[in-house]
Amino acid sequence: MQFFAILSLSNEIEDNDVVHGYNETCGAVTNPYSPLVNCSYLPEDFIRCVLPPIDHHGNSTAQEELGHGCVKWGAQKYQDVGTSRVWCEVLDGIECCGERRFLSLKEFPCVKYSGHYFVTTLIYSVLLGFLGMDRFCLGHTGTAVGKLLTLGGVGIWWIVDIILLVMGELRPADDSNWMPYY
């Protein structure tokens, strides 16, 4: 008998509690059996997130003030890659309670790609490195011109750049990551 009493109470919803679209008082809903969930708990299929995260250009104070965004991009090891939350918005036609624009609960990696392939750059470095082609392709134009005028530092700079490239010390000038081959 108690089960039926609870069931009948849960089906009683007053007209002022129902808001068409979504209910912003998510926690104060009088009906605990409501199908509405908090917008920030929706699966990724129902939200659109703004990627990549905000770039603070090394300003950690701005990151601390906002509470999200990337100070540095990418790294050689997975453990060294920073993460950040991003702004997400609920897709049209999806009903939920709470704010429809929110910071994601999931952390996204601070990684950006700009079209630099490691293998291609290594081939450029071995074959045309004495002309500075590897540095031109990576965006280091100032040192590339110097390398071109000295013919790869009479071969020494050419060999040093191949070693730096293989060791991971010579990277794209915009601090982007190498494009992965799939």
UniProtKB/TrEMBL annotation:
Entry keywords, A to Z: Glycoprotein, Membrane, Signal, Transmembrane, Transmembrane helix
All copies of domain TM2, residue ranges: 115-163
An annotated GO cellular component: membrane
Major location (coarse): membrane
Coiled coil: none
Subcellular location: Membrane
Superkingdom field: Eukaryota
Membrane topology, record value: Multi-pass membrane protein
InterPro entries to which the protein is assigned, alphabetical: TM2, TM2D1-3-like
Pfam families assigned: TM2 (PF05154)
Annotated transmembrane regions: 115-133, 145-167
Protein family (similarity comment): Belongs to the TM2 family.
Protein name per its UniProtKB record: TM2 domain-containing protein
Organism, as annotated: Capitella teleta (Polychaete worm)
